[in-house]
Every structure is written in C-alpha cells, then in structure tokens.
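Shipment paperwork, digital attachment
Item: protein structure file
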Amino acid sequence: MINSITLLEKITIAPPRAKIYSRLGFRKKTSLTSSQKQETDRHIEDAAALISLQGSFLILPLTGHDGRTIRLAGGLSFESEKLAAFLGQCREAALMGATAGSAIMDAIREKTSAGNLTTAVVYDATASEMADAALDWMMAYINRQLRREGKQLLPRRFSAGYSDFALTNQKALHQILQLEKFGVTLTPNFLLIPEKSVTAVTGIP
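Attachment content:
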C-alpha cells in the first residue's frame, strides 16, 4: 500500500451497546428494570448524536528493529521492547488515530456540573467505546484493502502508554497522523484533547 495518510472526515458506526453496558458495569447476570434499560438506551442514543467520529491512518514499511528500537520509513522510530516483540516479523506497521470530537466532552462536563451524574457516566462510556470502535472500523477498512494484496493486519493493536511503549510517543503519532486537522491537540503531559481521542499501532506480517 502507498505510504500516504488517509484522512477519514466521517466514520459512521452504531453505538456498541454490549461494550457500553459492560463498561458501565452491567454484566449478563446484572438485572435491569425495563425503565432503567430504556433510560440508559436513551442516554446512549443522545450521546451518539453528539459524537462526531473522525480519524486517520498511515501504513509505513518497517525498516528494521533491534528488539528495542522500531524504525519506520520516513525516519520515524519508537523505543519499546514490547512493541518490537508485538510487531515481530511484520514488514509494515499501521498507525491509526480517532476522536469522538469535542461536543460530547462539553456535554459530559455540562451534565456533571448540573449534578446529572448518571447521564454523564453513560455519555462518558458511550464516547469511550465509540472512539475505540472507530479503530475497529478502521482496521476492518484497512483489511478490505489489504486482501487485494493477500495481506491482513494483526488482530490486536498496541497503544502509547501501554507497557513500556511510553506515552511520550503520543507526540509523534499525533503529528504524523495529522490529528490537529480534526481539532485534536496534545497536552504537555502527552494526553490527547478532546479526551475521547485514541491512537494505536498494529502490524502487517
């Protein structure tokens, strides 16, 4: 695949209800009354209406790694033994980023300030799971293209801040994925703003 960035101005997915309910702590054994479920579903739908999923991805050849430093085309490199092991014998890496937008974060703050904590918690869970689901959607999108070449992504992905893949790597990911085009900024502590924004790395064997 061409190592040029793909910008996705609009990612349309349904709220992953099972994952949202799981994040909220509602397991299969947990019983909800009909009215509680209706109220939660309504909050999920209201949150989804405020979420504007956008993202980007970039596929780059791996030019080498020594078990610690992963080098990619264009001079990009990451220091992480765990990421190096994760990518293993991959020939390429896919870098991905997505955001749920700022409107949902404004709504969460508004509901929290008003003391409507139940709604705020559901909004927060919905935004978290939809941002993560956007990466799932992106991986499926990439895989459809890779099939033409007889390739596919690794089934899992690796995020900055996990294990020894330091959060400081968020800076390089934010920059190369051009996330500023979606209004995503980076704090001095390498956190993405709006908060429900995510990045990840996976490989192509």
